[in-house]
Amino acid sequence: MAYSEKVIDHYSNPKNVGTLDKGSKSVGTGLVGAPECGDVMRLQIQVDDATGVITDAKFKTFGCGSAIASSSLATEWLKGKTVDQAMAIDNMDLVEELNLPPVKIHCSVLAEDAIKAAINDYRVKNGLEELVFEEKGVH
Amino acid sequence: MLKFPIYLDNNATTPMDPRVLETMIPYFTEHFGNAASRNHPFGWEAEEAVDYAREQVAKLVGADPKEIIFTSGATEGDNLAIKGVYEMYASKGNHIITATTEHKAVLDTCKHIEKLGGEVTYLQVKEDGLIDLAELEAAIRPTTILVAIMYANNEIGVVQPVKEISTIAKKHGVLFFTDAVQAVGKIPVDVLKDGIDLMAFTAHKMYGPKGIGALYVRRKNPRVKVTAQMDGGGHERGMRSGTLNVPGIVGFGKACELARLEMADDAARLSKLRDKLENALLQIEESYVNGNREHRLPHVANISFKHVEGEGLLMGFNKNIALSSGSACTSASLEPSYVLKALGLGDDLAHSSLRFGLGRFTTEEQIDYTIEQISNTVHKLRDMSPLWEMYKEGIDLNSIEWAHH
């Protein structure tokens, strides 16, 4: 199976690989997937408490090229968005942008799950209630 | 000068040796006859060529030419051997013994036998990929008619103790079939010395053409028969009907002859290259060889790089190096290699594996390049891997509650 150019580009030059201080109150961390399934994503957001804007986002991913590309693209999209705007990111937007084939859609779902998990982590740290998201169940 | 892409997936298929192609060409155009045409020179020529090739094939494995049944390949050979014995020996029993690490052509044929009402025992393998001989013997019942164990494994290259297996089978009056696709032409295989009753092998794994293979069926001590699985003109002593693929057979014959003459040199050269590759890659932290390293094909290595996913790893260099991985992220099930799992490897390590299959045309320069590319990519992906970061921080990955999906 050939990868799309955009996937190859994100794989070769991944954006925002790294680690934020998960102990910080203004950092939300989402860790999703499982080693047994062949993909694990960790996505982190740094939120400006005053404005609610995501000022930085970092990821680390264990997985195939599409999983790496999905998380790399997700961090690009997160930066500059408010937390509320970030919640609206849909996995199908990632699929479209990266031209993911059907067998790789689960990579984009995982990225969306990672975003939501990071937002919830941030909310809980800041005394807000955890949001319940609809299960996509395509993994 | 290195030419790309480099091919290191010789367990999947091998390129055809140009010397094989050369012998085949006249049999497409000039000598196109049907080997079964008894009444004119076109048929005689074709038959003569087939007879000669049959001798070349037989000689490589120490068989009598009459014991070689040409098939379309090893999948057909596996089917014909297992289903053919099951039908032919139905009055003796209905139990077959095989192993969990067999090729799908054997496993799925056995599943089919079970649907027909037959009974199959699937032996587990030990951590090193070899079967336990005591377990094999204990599994034999009065109704057992066949033991089907591969000669060498396609994913990890381990070579089963074939001689010991056949001795046990013989002791209990059970036939022994081996899928020897990966072994024939690569290491010495001798049906008499090894005590093999039936054996499937194929040309395209030994620098011959695709679409042609053979089933060895023993004629003496004991005389073995299989029920044909295709009805027709009664070719191949009635065991496999269908007009013979003369150019394929000629090429198969030549490939066998070349293998017989060059096997020792190829194996010596390739085991050195394989060891060089393996030793260099084992310098990488947390990398492991899968399967028994001693009882193994000389040109095969299967290595896991912990905390890096196989398909992601391949992507780092698969424009330039053709390799295969035990990870199956592309399949809907996300199930990694069942062979690696049978060794007791966790799914995570099975997802992190690469299979190297060197071949007659592999060069040292290619191996040096491969070592460099893989090392670089493993390091790059580990810098990107949350699992590697956790491992380095001393976090026990098993203590984390993963969201299994």
Percent in helix of chain A: 25-40%
Radius of gyration of chain A: 14 Å
Give the beta-strand count of chain B. Answer: 13
Return the structural class of chain B. alpha/beta
What is the succession of H and E elements of chain B?
Answer: EHHEHEHEHEHEEEHEEHEEHHEHH
Chain oligomer state: heterodimer
Biggest sheet character of chain A: 3 strands, antiparallel
Radius of gyration of chain B: 22 Å
| Main sheet specs of chain B | 7 strands, mixed
Describe this structure in words.
The complex is a heterodimer of chains A (139) and B (405). Chain A has 139 residues and is α+β, with helices and mostly antiparallel strands. Chain A has five helices and three strands; from the N terminus they run H-E-E-E-H-H-H-H. Chain A has one domain: Sufe protein. Chain: A. A three-stranded antiparallel sheet of chain A has the order 1-2-3. In chain A, helix 2 crosses helix 5 and helix 4 (91-98) packs across helix 5. The longest helix of chain A has 21 residues, at 105-125. Chain A is globular, with a radius of gyration of 14 Å. Chain A starts with a helix and ends in a 14-residue tail after the last helix. In chain B, 53% of the residues are buried. In chain B, strand 5, helix 6 and strand 6 (175-179) form a beta-alpha-beta unit. The chains are: A alpha+beta (139), B alpha/beta (405). The interface between A and B is medium-sized, with 32 and 34 residues.
